[in-house]
Amino acid sequence: MTRVGIIGGGGYTAGELLRLLVHHPEVEIAVVESGSQAGKAVSEVHSDLVGETDLQFVGTAGAMLDQLDAVFLCMGHGVSRGWVEARRPKKDLLVVDLSTDYRMDERWVYGLPEINRDKIVGARRIANPGCFATAIQLALLPLAAAGLAEGEVHINAITGSTGAGQSPSPTTHFSWRNANVSVYKAFSHQHLAEIGRSAAQVGRIATDKLNFLPVRGPFARGIFATTYLDTSASEAELKQLFNDFYADAAFTHVTDDSIDLKQVVNTNKGLVHVEKHGDKALVTTAIDNLLKGASGQAVQNMNLALGLPEKLGLNLKASMF
């Protein structure tokens, strides 16, 4: 049995991890650390877990770290690095960080299984990709690998409010977010750095020309992204390209039918649809930002790193209603 700990256990991504790992057949959740929730029952904070766990939050995992096989860091951006430097986890402890802190660190494996599966197997330091980055890379990387993404690439992606985290802010307040749409961090979103690095990894030469417009959506979870660029490749060639690229992917599926967000919400799936319009290729992708874009992908990475079946504990079903 794999003994795991969750650090920063009070937020959305930690809640999703708990829901997954409580029922994972090869996992025992040994400790859930949260400075702000210490002493409370986990089900008091994550109330959908009432009746499913008797775990309590602790203020610090302390010496228990030495008894763990894996730990998930679910703290705010900029906090994980301080935790790692202060705690100095043992080298054979699997650490999966869900923040931005190590995504550009060459000493950590970037945990996008669609391109780094072999590197993830056996790894002990994994930087989980960002949610926008995951959705966009599913569209961009096959094109980049084929040399079709050297020119201007135009990306528009809309995300649910959970992507901003659990701490309240003016743009996550219900009365502002409901029935509202807005653009933010136009052309400058922090996920562009990791997207650009992965594109270079698969062969993209250009270091710019990724034009990304992030959009806040009036819903709780999910990301729907559209990516388009000029190409002379035919629709049949594009579809073959994507089918070949994702032929062995456990959770990313290319479909001939138009996709919608409800197909992926509450699952670890990434859906991809490709069309050709005149001289433009249009790729639409959809993921659940809290699962394939965060905690589900983190469990997928844990499974791969520890030699467990990749899909174990992730047999989740979407509901269209």
TrEMBL record:
It is an enzyme of class 1 (oxidoreductase). The active site is at 131. GO terms for biological process: L-arginine biosynthetic process. Pathway: Amino-acid biosynthesis; L-arginine biosynthesis; N(2)-acetyl-L-ornithine from L-glutamate: step 3/4. PROSITE patterns: ARGC. Residues 3-123 form the Semialdehyde dehydrogenase NAD-binding domain. Keywords: Amino-acid biosynthesis, Arginine biosynthesis, Cytoplasm, NADP, Oxidoreductase. GO terms for cellular component: cytoplasm. The keyword Cytoplasm applies. CDD domains: AGPR_1_N (cd17895). InterPro entries: AGPR, AGPR_AS, AGPR_dimerisation_dom, AGPR_type-1, NAD(P)-bd_dom_sf, Semialdehyde_DH_NAD-bd. One of its GO terms (molecular function) is NAD binding. It is found in: Cytoplasm. It catalyses: N-acetyl-L-glutamate 5-semialdehyde + phosphate + NADP(+) = N-acetyl-L-glutamyl 5-phosphate + NADPH + H(+). Its main location: cytoplasm. Its EC number is 1.2.1.38. SUPFAM superfamilies: Glyceraldehyde-3-phosphate dehydrogenase-like, C-terminal domain, NAD(P)-binding Rossmann-fold domains. Catalyzes the NADPH-dependent reduction of N-acetyl-5-glutamyl phosphate to yield N-acetyl-L-glutamate 5-semialdehyde. Belongs to the NAGSA dehydrogenase family. Type 1 subfamily. This is N-acetyl-gamma-glutamyl-phosphate reductase.
